[in-house]
Amino acid sequence: MKKFFEPLKMADKLIFIFVGLLGCLSLLMLESTVYDGGFVLDRVVIVQAASYIIGFFAMVAVLHFEYSMFVGMNKFLYIIAVVFLLSVYIPGLGVELYSSRAWINLGFTTLQPSEFVKILFILIMADYLSVHREDIRKFRGVLMAGLYALPIIVIVLKEDLGSALVYMVVWLFMVFFAGIDYKVLLKSIIAAIAAIPVVYNFLGDYQKDRIEAFLHPDNLSLPGNYQVWQSKVAIGSGGFFGKGLFNGTQKELDFIPVQQSDFIFSVVVEELGFIGGFLVILLYSGLMYRFIVAIREALDLHGALIVTGFTAMFLFQIFENIAMTLGVMPVTGITLPLLSGGGTSVIASLMSIGFILNVRINSKPIRF
Question: According to the model, what pLDDT value does residue 364 have?
Answer without folding.
Answer: 66
